[in-house]
Amino acid sequence: MLSRSRCFTRTFGRSISALRQSNNVLARRAASGISSSQCISVKDTLNCETRPSIFQIRYFKTTAAHRNEVITVKTPAFAESVTEGDVRWEKAVGDTVTEDEVVCEIETDKTSVQVPSPAAGVIEELLVPDGGKVEGGTPLFKLKKGAVGAAKATPAPAAEAPAAAAPPPPPPTPAAAGPIPTTMPPVPPVPAQPIASKPVSAIKPTAAPAAAPADTAKGARSEHRVKMNRMRLRIAQRLKEAQNTCAMLTTFNEVDMSNITEMRKVYKDAFLKKHNIKLGFMSAFVKAAAYALMDQPAVNAVIDDTTKEIVYRDYVDISVAVATPKGLVVPVVRGVEGMNFTDIEKAINELGEKARKNELAVEDMDGGTFTISNGGVFGSMFGTPIINPPQSAILGMHGIFDRPVAVGGKVEIRPMMYVALTYDHRLIDGREAVTFLRKIKSVVEDPRVLLLDM
């Protein structure tokens, strides 16, 4: 009896010790994430009763429901002068997009607004059809955040034509073809009656196979229709308004580009090295126009038709016409009267880069007191530009061509450019227009006029 009591006491003590050790082990394993449950069994060697002890640890998982959240993206707010636009989709339903990736583009009558994705995810639904009209705040599409788009299934090859894909069988070997025949094949029997024949006229002609589409399309006179975008419609409207409103008249002159060409040739490498930008001819004409506009303020003025007043401006903001695939845009270089050649070149380059990337905002094209259009980059020799309303005048530059000119009583070959000034004759008289154009000619031909303020 005493022996059994000692055995029980010894076994119970060992069990308590083992349980404590197992608790420590379980705590360490739970912390390291090895196992979610452990079973400890203690058995004495003296045929004592086995008593299992089970310990279980529970874990909690955080939900990922917020990753599959579906959000609705709306049309961004437009500028004050823009009320609506047309949607052109870059993505389709089921496409995977990353954060800030462009999903669609809204084309207004002045510029295009890109709509990026606010987060990474999958396009679930397009709420506006392609080409649809939207206003600020209109729902555009639904985006499932954090989802992965399913790969688009590719059509499986047809199972009915395995022979087309299988390689042709190899020719049989002589052993497999059998022995070579040694006797002549039997002669076919002669028919008892002659074979019936038909006259050629009784044979019906069969239809010729259809010719290839390329052959039928050769020489075809086809046409197709393309909807005018909003920017092109707005340009057409403004140009027609200018024709209907302004009393437009154009005066011409020619500019000897010898000095400015020589100056550019001498300093273009040093200019590029210092300012990291190329020296062009536009800066010379923009600066010359600003100088002439300050000298002839009527060309820089505008008629306010509502109040029947003339508005004179003591600042010069020049719109530079830039051709884009969607139409002509006119970003504005502001405060030209206080700029030098370097400032003008940097501003034009920055605006031109934004126009090529379709990143021009309405603010970049709003305003402007005078416009310069350079058709010479396309090889234009002569032309009459149309006023950009509500402005009162526009300068047209053209190509530089070597022509014979009289210089000091002698005929010389000089690089010449024709320039044209179209102006509103309601406000600008011929004297101001001709004087303005001659001032531009003198500054471009000899930039030292700017230094001497002549």
From TrEMBL:
A Pfam family annotated for this UniProt entry: 2-oxoacid_dh
Cofactor: (R)-lipoate
One GO BP annotation of this record: tricarboxylic acid cycle
Annotated pathway: Amino-acid degradation; L-lysine degradation via saccharopine pathway; glutaryl-CoA from L-lysine: step 6/6
Protein EC: 2.3.1.61
Enzyme class (EC, first level): transferase
Functional note: Dihydrolipoamide succinyltransferase (E2) component of the 2-oxoglutarate dehydrogenase complex. The 2-oxoglutarate dehydrogenase complex catalyzes the overall conversion of 2-oxoglutarate to succinyl-CoA and CO(2). The 2-oxoglutarate dehydrogenase complex is mainly active in the mitochondrion. A fraction of the 2-oxoglutarate dehydrogenase complex also localizes in the nucleus and is required for lysine succinylation of histones: associates with KAT2A on chromatin and provides succinyl-CoA to histone succinyltransferase KAT2A.
Protein name in the entry: Dihydrolipoyllysine-residue succinyltransferase component of 2-oxoglutarate dehydrogenase complex, mitochondrial
Protein species of origin: Astyanax mexicanus
